[in-house]
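step 4 of 6: structure.
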Amino acid sequence: MPLFGKKKKDEKSQRIQTAVSQNETSYFGKNLMIKGRISGNGNVIILGGLEGEFNLRGRVKIAEPAKIKGEVKADFISVNGSVKGTLSAQQQLHLEKTARIEGQIITPKLSIDEGAAFNGEITMGGNKTKPSEAAADEAAAVPQKPDATKSDSL
Amino acid sequence: MQKATTADSTSLVSKNVRIEGEIEGPENLHVEGYIKGAISISGDIFVGNTGIVDADLEAKNIVIQGEVTGNVTAHKQLEIHPSGKLIGDCIAASIDIKEGAVFEGRSMMMKSAGAAAGKPPAPARLQPQQSQKKRQPK
């Protein structure tokens, strides 16, 4: 039995290790309150509070207990919590059933689950309704600039 | 693994993430990214190898493996690992600075709640003591 207990412990520490070494997904627990600006690359799961701004290349998951006031900008956003302010997803935005949104949504692809509450305004800019994700990635990586320069040179 | 952490949930700021602002709450915080501003939590702060913190820190236990610039207040223990670097003043109930660590600043010892309850702010191996300490304040 003690052996088993030890093994379990090892597994746990290993799991923490890998979580740290993978280093991809940041996690803000439900008791954490952040005031300010979060930026960078990577995925984020937030359960706590944020007053300020998210500006990320990656996925943001706003879990149920999370309360956000301000602006959230990322590639993919999925919301289960409450947001007052602007949600701006470069690629895709998903509101799940416990989402409570007050404010503005900007995204080319939107899905809303039954039960989600949304008061505000939606802008689905850039008519990118390309079905393949690769194309969408490309479009995001090279945002319209070439077109603009082309039309300028013409 | 090592000692038990103080709060029941640990937040992680990963490598390529940057936070500018204030962070607070009853949580543990593991920093592998960059934080500028102020952190005041009632759990533990762990600044990992890739972590860079340009902020004043306040927490129960603080472990530094990365780089911290700012004033540090540890209500229990401050630990600076060989790879760690602290530029700034520290106030702690107990300090543990490993060989190779960098610490530039003033140090002041405080009498923490744990220390006042009878346990002297003793050297590194806190594991058995800590569980006792934990029960005493409650």
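step 5 of 6: annotate
 - The longest strand of chain A covers residues 82-95.
 - Chain A touches chain B at residues 9, 12-13, 16, 19-20, 23-42, 44, 48-49, 52, 56 (CB under 8 Å).
step 6 of 6: archive
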